[in-house]
Design a protein that fits this description.
By secondary structure, the chain is of the alpha/beta class. About 25% of the residues lie in helices and about 25% in strands. The protein has a 7-stranded parallel sheet with strand order 1-4-5-6-7-8-10.
Length: about 240
């Protein structure tokens, strides 16, 4: 697994961004997250050793822009160069998530056609309103590999209408002392929708405030992912 953040910084975009971990972390460091800047690792995928070998080893999945949004308008002037690197490194598989899926067609290269085989796009949603808006767009886009990311999930969602051509659905709760609760019933209902449509499902993390069998629990941040794994409901 690789990580590539060609730029950093983002703007809160919808209700799912309320307790964004990037904004919280930057606040503690005295950094203004709203300033979007290129990073020193901008050219990471094509950097080479003195022997001319790519430093980023072939065959791995590379997570892109996890400190921002790959489709954020502030980065329009840099994105095409990133697409060129992604195309050059066809031996890597690049994955990025976005809440700005309505910008997708304005952000792709001229040779995109029906998509690059080495790119997965994850459309992030948090409630039914944004699921209906974003996934209707997402379902029509020319993308080879599509994931839906329900994180943070803040209410019950029906995805059944949007699961055609989806490879994976990820569900996770919100992490913050004031986080909105995640109800385990919502997780199980999305799982059942995925099972019914033969779509892979992953329960990524519980929420800080977690409801199961009518009981409310408060969990430590360090335990959110491990507790989700213990549920053993991935499909």
């Amino acid at each position: 697994m690789g990580m590539w953040n060609p730029w950093r910084g983002c703007h809160r975009y919808s209700t799912g961004c309320k307790y964004c971990y990037i904004h919280k972390g930057d606040y503690r460091k005295g950094i203004d997250t709203n300033i979007v800047t290129k990073t020193e690792r901008f050219y990471a995928p094509i950097e080479k050793t003195k022997n001319g070998i790519y430093k980023m080893k072939h065959g791995q999945t590379v997570y892109v822009c996890f400190s921002s949004d790959f489709l954020i308008a502030d980065a329009d002037k840099w994105r095409m160069e990133c697409w060129e690197m992604i195309r050059e490194r066809s031996d890597l598989h690049f994955l990025f998530l976005t809440k700005r899926i309505e910008r997708f067609l304005d952000c792709i290269p001229h040779n995109w056609k029906d998509g690059y085989e080495n790119v997965t796009v994850g459309c992030t949603i948090e409630n039914q309103e944004n699921a209906d808006y974003r996934l209707r767009i997402f379902s029509r886009l020319p993308i080879k590999h599509k994931n839906i990311i329900c994180q943070p999930l803040i209410e019950n969602i029906n995805l059944s209408e949007y699961l055609q051509d989806i490879e994976l659905v990820v569900v996770g709760g919100e992490s913050d002392k004031n986080a909105r609760p995640l109800n385990y019933d919502w997780v199980l209902q999305i799982r059942q929708q995925c099972v019914s449509h033969n779509v892979h499902f992953e329960f990524r993390q519980c929420g800080t405030h977690f409801i199961k069998d009518g009981k409310s629990y408060t969990l430590c941040t360090r335990d959110l992912c491990s507790q989700a794994r213990k549920a053993n409901i991935n499909f």
